[in-house]
Write a structure and sequence with these properties.
Length: 324
């Protein structure tokens, strides 16, 4: 009769199990500069995540993008730290005027301070990007993980559902779906992007789970009587999550740009919500007479999207074992 399943029997064979096995073997071979045998201290094995963090700290792309994102998060939470005005307070007498003392970005077509609206617009963009990414990652990982783990009919069914959502054009779908929404909050836009954004994560998660479940430590857990839920959560998910994190991090910047695109087309966020997309749309007709109205929110949007894409690239390089 097989013995009851015990996590300790295959300890370390979940998230980084091979590394824990190597650590136990390393205790018998103390390394010195002269070779594998000697009296020096044993070299402690590192996991994939510790190696990735070490590489990220040495990557200037990661440092620069992280500082930019940290700044965006801070001004999203406390915009009054660098902008004391009210983004909805306007003076038509100053419409389209350029830079002035205390108003470095000038005024828009309604006489609102462009600097204040640009700062407050970061809150909307970061909120939409983060909430959409979290929702897409959770739902896509759930669907893809089930399809990859159970396979067979479940895999065929969920894969076909994924293909259906893949066939819906995002911008066209937004024009149809959001055109009937009257709410001026960010939640309809977030819900729509989650609805059409999860298939990409689902496919990534499915492939990662299929690869991870073929490893020896998963087969050992199955032989010891581990339940499906324990194998999926304890041994497979920690080893399959890295590609999902990479894709989700890169996609975050894409979601911010998509929100701005939908708002520019008039079906995304709506006034009085302060959004870079709304300001870009309103300023596009004044680009010849007052280009400052367009350049500042568009520049902030470009820097934000670029920062998240750079962060995703740095995380991808750190987590890709083929680049080590």
């Amino acid at each position: 009769m097989p013995e009851p399943y015990d996590d300790g029997a295959i300890a370390g064979t979940g998230a980084g199990g091979a590394m824990d096995l190597a650590a136990s073997e390393a205790t018998t071979l103390e390394r010195t500069p002269g070779g594998p045998q000697g009296t020096g201290p044993a070299e402690k094995a590192r996991s994939l995540w510790s190696d990735a963090w070490r590489d990220l700290r040495r990557n200037p792309v990661f440092i620069i993008s992280s500082l930019v994102i940290l700044f965006l998060v801070v001004i999203s939470l406390w915009p009054s730290l660098i902008a004391s005005g009210n983004p909805l307070q306007c003076d038509l007498a100053k419409a389209q005027e350029g830079s002035q003392p205390g108003h470095p970005f000038g005024y828009n077509g309604q006489g609102c301070d462009v600097y204040t609206r640009t700062v407050y617009g970061a809150r909307t963009s970061v909120t939409v990007g983060v909430c959409t990414t979290v929702g897409v990652a959770l739902f896509g990982s759930f669907v893809g993980g089930l399809a990859g783990f159970f396979g067979g009919g479940w895999d065929a069914l969920l894969s076909r559902v994924t293909d259906i959502f893949f066939g819906i054009p995002v911008v066209l779908g937004g024009l149809v779906f959001l055109s009937v929404v009257t709410s001026s909050t960010v939640w309809p836009v977030i819900g729509f992007m989650i609805l059409l954004g999860w298939p990409q994560i689902a496919r990534i998660a499915r492939g990662s789970v299929i690869t991870a479940k073929q490893n020896d430590y998963v087969q050992a857990a199955r032989a010891l009587g581990a339940s499906n839920s324990r194998m999926l959560l304890r041994h497979i998910a920690p080893n399959a999550v890295a590609p999902v994190i990479v894709v989700a991090t890169i996609a975050l910047g894409t979601y911010i740009a998509l929100e701005a695109t939908l708002s520019y087309l008039g079906v995304g966020l709506k006034p009085p919500t302060v959004s870079w997309g709304i300001d870009i749309s309103a300023a596009s007709q004044y680009i010849r007479n007052a280009p400052h109205m367009l350049l500042w929110p568009a520049g902030a949007l470009a820097v934000t999207v670029l920062a998240f894409i750079m962060l995703g690239d740095a995380v991808r390089d750190a987590l890709d074992p083929k680049l080590r």
